[in-house]
Every structure is written in structure tokens, then in C-alpha cells.
Amino acid sequence: MDSKICMNGVCGATSSIEWKKGWPLKSGEFAYLCDKCGTAYEQLGFCDLFHSEDTGWRECISCGKRLHCGCIASSSLLELLDSGGINCVGCARSCQLHATPNHVKAKAFGTSNSNSVGETPSTSLGSQMNGSEPKKREGSDGVDPVLVLPHQNGNTNKPIGQIKMEEAFHPAGESGCTFSSNLCQASAESSKNVKLDSYNGYIGVNEIHGSQVQTNLSIALSAPSPNTKLFPATVDEGDLNKRISSLQQGSRSRSLLPKPPKSTSAVRSETNAGIISQIRVARPPVEGRIKNQLLPRYWPRITDQELQQISGDSNSTIIPLFEKVLSASDAGRIGRLVLPKACAEAYFPPISQPEGLPLRIQDVKGKEWVFQFRFWPNNNSRMYVLEGVTPCIQSMQLQAGDTVTFSRMDPEGKLLMGFRKASTVNSTQETRLSAIPKSVFSTEPTSFSAMPENLPLMSGYSGLLQSFKGSRESSMNLSSKHFNSGDFSWYLTEKNEGRNADGTFSPSMPVSDRKRSRNIGSKSKRLLIDSDEALELKLSWEELQDMLRPPLSIQPTTVTIEDHEFEEYEQPPVLGKRSIFTVRFSGEQEQWAQCDNCFKWRRLPADYLLPPQWTCQDNIFYHSRCSCSVPDDLTSRELEYLLKMDKDLKKRRNAAGQRTAQAHDSSDLDSHANGTGVAGDVRERGATSVATTTKHPRHRPGCSCIVCIQPPSGKGKHNPTCTCNVCLTVKRRFKTLMMRKKKRQSEREAEIGQRNQLMWSSKEETEVDSFSRQVKPEADPSDRERSGSETLARGHSSNQLQKLPETSKSQLDLNCHPNREDTGSSHLSMMSLLQQASLPLETYLRQNGLTSLVSEQQGSSGSQGLPPDTRESEVRIHEDQCFASTSQEQEQEGTKENSEPDQSGKDNS
DNA sequence: CCGTTGCATGAACAC
DNA sequence: TGTTCATGCAACGGT
């Protein structure tokens, strides 16, 4: 060793207490530097010290730092810019932090340590350095390395070949620079780092990864040195500058993180921070008992800030031990935190009895917790758990996916427990993600923040997810309820409430609820599947359908199935904005949407298809309201009512949904329907409607088209005499269609026969054709009713209805009574049709035996005073599906429902 | 009925 | 293939 000559030409020392590696040589080896020069090199002061008078100094164009461009000793400290000039590695790195993939960045600046390697027998290179005693690195926290360096008993002689691969990825140990290898300048580590540099020259940090594995492997095998600096796994605040400087030496001191745990991508987590001191680095095991068995996933990724936070003002040294991402079980109510076996055995007191012993652990707030550290026999092994962690977990407000970090405070030996929230994402997503296998979602902040990268669509659905959450408080559409707020009277027709009353689009579930739903074990979660919350989730998916809109600017292809026209889209539907549908006492239907900018609620036509994003400026219907500066269309009270009623509807619908599910489970639709009829409960009918809701994009809840009212699949054919709600609906619907068919036929024939007169005919035609387009008071209550209901069908069904097939009912297998409507219109003579068509519709209906429809017409105007029990059932169906009913009406529903079978029977007869 | 406890099971993972 | 560990689940006890 003494035969070496310091390769610093200025120095040329032939002897040194410690030889240090310097810059990479062309041969791939490294310059040997005496202790003094090597130290200067490590401290980035080599050129300052020895070459200050030389030429070649330039300044970093970013920070102005002087860099000796003409010297190999500084070659790794700068980066030549494509545009000319140079950047110091620090500035270059900051740029790359924004341009480099997270994992690359993290890897580039992560640090790690392999204790085993550090203590492996010296290789030739190590032997060259042998004999130099460990010494505290300047800038280290001053803790005796012995205290913090794991004495890997049994590992010292461990063949290198047994070194775990992951450890080979973390050869920092051989360099003595542990977790803070990026924070300190390791002389010995330069054996690897410089080698990297030798490969990469001036390349940026992110360019080294292609060879990192091989490089590090070679380092691991070649650069052990027991005398290399053994850095404690602790960092003092005073080291920050050092760290920064070492980071600036990143290309030299970079070491490699372990491959990120499969379930986590923690290495990404801090890339957005851009703060060097907050770089989350995986700190490999620092305790000897770990014996290299600790999987990288448990390596503490604790930032220096966190360490600082934990240590506080004390002079104690914080030694990160390990961390663990909380599983659902860990964070659940059971209060048991499963400890990694290796960690438990390495860092916690040895226990021989399953009962274990109480363990005092202090949290970051200084509060001391006592957990029972114990184990369960498991096969031939043990399973270590900390029991009684629930209070602590709750205190920290931790949940599955969050990370708890265990550290030890030396010299007291006190155990510390820190945590790291995994939530940079909204709680909704957290909640959902928590249910996703951990292999799917990572738990560190960046993993969430990286979601848009991994799931680009998800970001687009974030609003949807929130909507889902919001929908928890909303209800589905079909249950109806009327409410009256002064003069503000609505029939709430559809769910909504994606936003709170204050306009914020926030999850409706209270924080406590969210926490509760998250911090539960899987078993409880499973149980919740049957609970309201889970039901709400299910309903949310149904709501999703409601939000589906036809693809923008895509014209549907019309296909005819059984003479019914349907719109088909080659592209999948898009998610539209949620809205609330209401119906005023006057029968006017409205749609309420919230501006994405100002969150004000605006009234819109009921048949307007809201795009996914909508602002006041898009309000082409009410120009006086097309600006965000215009006050909200709703008073706070009205909005409160609206949302409150919406919430109530949800509950009602949930109850109905449960009952429906039960009814379906029993495969007894009829009994369900009967029960519904007897009960006369709107909720029941609403539930039935739920099962018959949207089946294609433009169908809205309440759509009564032939598609949406079909019975649920798998339920088979209903008996022709079936009086279940579905069948009744179908029958009523069919009856309406037939009536309209006859009407139109009569009009057409009349038009043919009397081309130059019968202006009424064209009027009727117009009425029919436009019946679904706009809600407006009409002379014919039946038309108005139809208009009302089918407007909610969002036009698509109305299109179908407009194009009602000239078919006989035999073409419709809708489980309707075979004898129904046998009084076909085909037997009508032209003259009779003309005569009938000239009559008022009511008279027409009566003459055609459609007395029930007469009742319907009357019933449809029941809200204007006619007894509701005389209304035709279709009206009620429409109301049930689309509108709310007044409480009075609801009470009367029972009566009507009771009479409904009879009514249907009359219809069928 | 509900929460706790101790063990069992099996998927995921490392080797 | 063996190990780890997340989670299931039955037994048990308390209310």
C-alpha cells in the first residue's frame, strides 16, 4: 500500500494513513489519493484546493458555482449542456428531477447500504485500503459507526455469493456510506461511483441506470472494505449541507436503491418534493441482527426531515429500523400489527413465549404507547404481531396503505414509531384503493401521485370517483319524493348531489365514516358489502350508467329490432355531468346542473344532455344565466332542500333496492310486485324501476322506452297474467303505444283523405312529434304527461317513440296479456277514424274502449285537481320513475296500487 | 350478539 | 420449494 503514489500531481505523496479512491481512470480503476487529497476530493474541494490557479474554471449557469471543467477530478461534478455552458450536478439534478422518470430519479439519488458487503473479507481493492481504521466521516452525525453499523454476525464470513441480490443492489455498505450515501461523500464508495463515472463520463444522473445492476454487482464483489467509513444511519440536521453537497456530487456518490417493493413505489414518492433534504431514501438495515434478511420493502424510507422531526431537539441519534406499509388487517379494528419476522427478531426484544412482552414505543408526538409484542406459532415459524395498536393507529389517523416507521433512539434505545401517510390522493380514491390488492396500488405518496401516470384514465375519472362518493349521499333516480320549499316546489326526479351544498365537490361521507370504513378489517369490510355503504357503492355504479352520455359528435346508427329503433354507437359512451332532475307542480321538468367553475347551480331543460364538463358559459338556454357572475339559480335553502331530498331518496332507494334484491333472490317477481302493489310504496316501485333502468347510453333513469322497461334478464318470461310491476309497466306502455299508433294512423289517413283541410291533424301530428321535446303545458293532458315522462328519457326514447312502429302487438313479446288490445286499430274505417280523430282525445279514447286511458288523462292532471285514484297507472309509473310524488300522493299510491291489478285487468280485458 | 384471541390457510414472494 | 405474512375463521368470553 505504501508503494502507492498519490495521483494528485501536486501532492505525490507516497504514504498515507489511508488511501482513498479518486476519480476514475481510463483503465476503469481509480486514482489513488492520499488521505489528504482523497478527503479533499470527497469533499468536492479537490480542484479548489489544488487547481485554483489553473485554467478551465467555469461557472454553473444556474447557480454560478465555480467548476473546474478542465480537470478530471471535477468531471463528475458538472454536466455539459447541449446548449453550451455547464451545470453543476446539483442543478443538473434539479432539472432532471422534473424530467426524469421518478423511479430513475429516485434510484439515482437513493442511497442504500449493504452491510454484508461492507464486512465481507477484503478483496484486492479492499486490501489496499485495509488497515485504516474506521473513521467518522466529516459531516456525519458523529455517532460511533460501531453503534450504528450492523455487526452482521455470521455474515462477516458469509460468502459473497450468498449475498442477496437485493443487497448487491445496495453496495453502499462497502463504501461505508449508508443510507446517506447521497448525503455524504464516501471515499471508498467512489470505487463504485467512480466506476460508474468511468462508464458514464459526463452523463447525467439518469443515464447510469442501464448498467447499474452490473456495476453494483461488480462493486459489491470488489469493493468491500471494513475500514471504509461506516456511517450511522442517522443524520443530523447539520448534515444537510453535506448532503446537499454530496448530492451535487451525485454522479459520484449516487448509489442505488433497492428495487422498489412490488407493492410500493416509494422511491417515487419524493420526486415531486424537489427538496433534497426530503428525498426519501431507503435506509438499509443498520442492525446486526437483521443479518441481511430484511427485505427492501421494510427498509425505512424516512426522510431526513422526518428523522429530524422525530429526534426533535434531543441529541439522541435516531436509527431508522424498518417500516411497514399497513395492511387492512394492520389498520383494522383488530388492533394487531403484523411485524415482519425479520424485523421483529432483529429489532425488538427476543421473546420466547407467545405471550411476548409489552413494548413501549413512542410516537412522533412524544406520546408513549405500550403494545404487546408477541408471536403466534405459525407452521414451524413465528408470526410476530404488535397488539393493541388500534389507539395509536387511530391517533395517527393511519389507514391501510399508510406506512409506519420504527426507529430507535440511541443511546437510550427507545423505540420510536413514526408514520407516513399514503394520502396525497383524495380520500375517495384512498378508500377505493385500499380495497385493491396492494400489489395493485402502491402506498406511498408518490405512488398515488403517480396514479395519473399509471392510470391516465383514472385522473379523468377522478371526478367520477368523487361523484361516486358524492353519490353516496345521493339517491338513484327513480324513487320519488316531492318537497316543497315555499314556492319552490319540486318533484325530485333524479339523483345527484355530486357536490355539497357549499358547492364543493366533496365526498359526502363524513371523514369519520370514511375512516371507519377504511380502518376495518377485511372481514368487516366484507360484512359491509351487505350494508348500506356497500349498497351505496353498488348504486353508485348504477349512477355511473346515468352519467353515460352518447359520444360527442358521434351520430348513432339506428337499428331496428322488432320494429323498434335503437341507437347504436360505435364508440363507448362518455361520462357526462351529473344533474338533478326536478318537476314542478306545474309539471314543468327541469334539470339542475352545477357549474364546474363557480359551482353555481343552473336550471336547464330537462332534455339537455350535459357534457362531462359544463360551465355557466355553456348555458345556451338561459342567456341571463350564462355567466358565473350571475347569482345562483338556487337559493341556499332551495339547494339545501334539493340535496336533502336527494339524500332522502337515496335512503329510500337503498331500502327499496334491498327489498328488490331480496325479491329477486327469491326469484319471485310476482310476489315482489304484489308486495309492491299492496304496500303501495313508492320505494318499491322505485326499486323495480331500478332494475329496469338505463340499458344504453342515452337512456336516463325514468326512461320508459321498450328497452328500459324490459324485465331483468334471467328472470324468464312472466306469466301473461302476471301483474308484477314490470309487466304492468310494459302493458301500460304498450297500451300507450297502441293508442298513439291508432291516433297517428287515423291522422295519417285523415290527412290522406282530406289533404287540404284538417289543420287539426297537422297540429296533432306536431304535438305527437314534439311531445317529448319540450315540457310545456298542453291542452291535451295526456300529451303533456307523455311529454313529461319521455322528456326525462332524454330524447332517445322519444325518438323511438316518435318512430313507433306500425306493428301489432304480436310483434312485441313483452309479456303482456295476449288478449289485451285486441280491439286493433286496423278495423277502424277511415271515416270513423276521421270522426274520432276530430273528437277530443278523451272522447276518442272512450270510444275506443280506452277508458283506462281516459282515466290516465284525468289522472295525469290529477295534480291539477283530479282525484289521483282515477289516474291511469302509467302516470303513476312515470311519476314513480321520473318524478316525485307529494306525500299525499304517496299515501294515495297505496290505494292506487291496490286497485292497479284491477285496473290492469280491465286494461287487459 | 359482539369483540377478542389464537390458529389456520393460502397467496405472494424469495430463493 | 420453502417462507412470509395477510387474512380468514372458529372458539371463547364479555355484555
Automatic annotation (TrEMBL):
Report the Gene3D superfamilies cross-referenced here.
3.30.40.100, DNA-binding pseudobarrel domain (2.40.330.10)
Q: Which SMART domains match?
A: B3
Which keywords does the record carry?
A: DNA-binding, Metal-binding, Nucleus, Transcription, Transcription regulation, Zinc, Zinc-finger
Gene (UniProt): LOC107760125
A Pfam short name: B3
Residues in a coiled coil are none
Q: Which CDD domains match?
A: B3_DNA
Region (Disordered) residue spans: 108-142, 246-266, 653-699, 739-825, 854-909
Q: What range(s) does the TF-B3 domain occupy?
A: 322-423
Which biological process, per GO, is one annotated for this protein? regulation of DNA-templated transcription
- UniProt cross-references to InterPro entries, sorted A to Z: B3_DNA-bd (IPR003340), DNA-bd_pseudobarrel_sf (IPR015300), Zfn_VAL1-3_N (IPR057743), Znf_CW (IPR011124)
> What residue spans carry the Polar residues bias annotation?
110-131, 796-813
**Comp. bias intervals (Basic and acidic residues):** 775-788, 869-881, 893-909
Name the source's superkingdom: Eukaryota
Keyword presence, Metal-binding: yes
From the Swiss-Prot or TrEMBL record, state where the protein is found: Nucleus
Query: What protein does this entry describe?
Result: B3 domain-containing transcription repressor VAL2 isoform X1
GO MF, one annotated term: zinc ion binding
Q: Where is the composition biased (Low complexity)?
A: 246-257
Give every CW-type domain span: 586-636
Q: Which SUPFAM superfamilies does the record cross-reference, listed alphabetically?
A: DNA-binding pseudobarrel domain
Q: What does the entry list under GO cellular component?
A: nucleus
Is the keyword Ligase in the record? no
